[in-house]
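Re: [ENG-882] Designed sequences occasionally contain unexpected residues at chain ends

Forwarding the minimal case from QA. Structure tokens:
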């Protein structure tokens, strides 16, 4: 695996690969890698010839400096995992290399950035869109691989890609879960062993709510699910909500085609955990 610290070197290397006709798949991450991240890389390696992973804890998407400081960083272990998974290229920059003063277009996120995660993390999606834009300019991939786990992020990036118009294909990869159903996340390592076990409730509650959507009123399901999760020790629900799968607007009734996404954010022991299920 080649490791690049500087975008100039990475750009030169990838331009050479592109000139040889090789296709490029890109997996942006913030490190502290787990099976979820590796599944994106594995999918990238089946669909494109060069798998590029970036590890960069992007300061502009954290509205809370304590959260940024507490974000886990495990570069040594990450490099080992990526090597073993067959990654060819790792971009491991520091902030000065990413934000080197080059201009990038700002995307119009059309209000998608102000709801759900955006409501409690102002500026978060503007920061995500900014860094993904810069990374796409550097890597210029054919395909971009991202996880369904961050469903709102997928919709934000989709919108941004449509505006960029450079033909990058976004591939949404399914959520990889721990044995108890908890969606894998770098943040899970901040939970106590007991909290981590009990956080499996989140997925079970999502599944039950999704099953009930054919027979009960959606607001009733939302309320009962919230109450159930809120009643667990050290759980605080931020939202638990049926939404339109693209616009993420709230739904009071299932739409004609029955397609919805059920999204939730729950603080467990003060750690913000996200999960969702698609209802089709
Ligand atoms: P992060 O390092 O948290 O920014 O995540 C980097 C990428 O990995 C994003 O596209 C995430 O959606 C994706 N990802 C994180 N956790 C999972 C998971 N459990 N299953 C699938 N993809 C994931």
């Amino acid at each position: 695996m080649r490791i690049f610290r500087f975008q100039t070197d990475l750009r030169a290397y990838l331009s050479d690969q592109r000139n040889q006709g090789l296709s490029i798949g890109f997996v942006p991450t913030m490190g502290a890698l787990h099976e979820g991240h590796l599944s994106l890389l594995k999918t990238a390696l089946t669909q494109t010839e060069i798998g590029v992973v970036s590890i960069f804890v992007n300061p502009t998407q954290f509205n809370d400096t304590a959260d940024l400081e507490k974000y886990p960083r495990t570069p040594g272990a990450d490099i080992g995992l990526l090597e073993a998974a067959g990654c060819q290229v790792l971009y491991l920059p520091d902030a000065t290399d990413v934000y080197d003063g080059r201009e990038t277009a700002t995307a119009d996120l059309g209000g998608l950035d102000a709801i759900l995660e955006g409501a409690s993390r102002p500026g978060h999606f503007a920061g995500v869109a900014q860094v993904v834009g810069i990374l796409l300019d550097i890597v210029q991939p054919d395909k971009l691989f991202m996880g369904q786990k961050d469903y709102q992020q997928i919709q934000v990036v989709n919108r941004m890609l449509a505006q960029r118009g450079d033909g990058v294909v976004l591939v949404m990869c399914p959520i990889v879960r721990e044995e108890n159903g908890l969606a894998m996340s770098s943040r899970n390592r901040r939970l106590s062993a007991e909290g981590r076990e009990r956080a499996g409730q989140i997925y079970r509650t999502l599944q039950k709510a999704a099953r009930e959507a054919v027979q009960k009123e959606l607001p009733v399901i939302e309320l009962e699910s919230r109450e159930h999760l809120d009643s667990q020790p050290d759980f605080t629900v931020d939202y638990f909500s049926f939404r339109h799968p693209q616009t993420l607007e709230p739904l009071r009734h299932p739409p004609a085609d029955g397609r919805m996404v059920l999204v939730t954010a729950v603080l467990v022991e003060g750690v913000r955990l996200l999960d969702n299920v698609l209802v089709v």
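QA comment: On inspection the terminal residues look reasonable. The CA atoms of residues 115 and 248 lie 8 Å apart. Proposing we downgrade this to a documentation issue.
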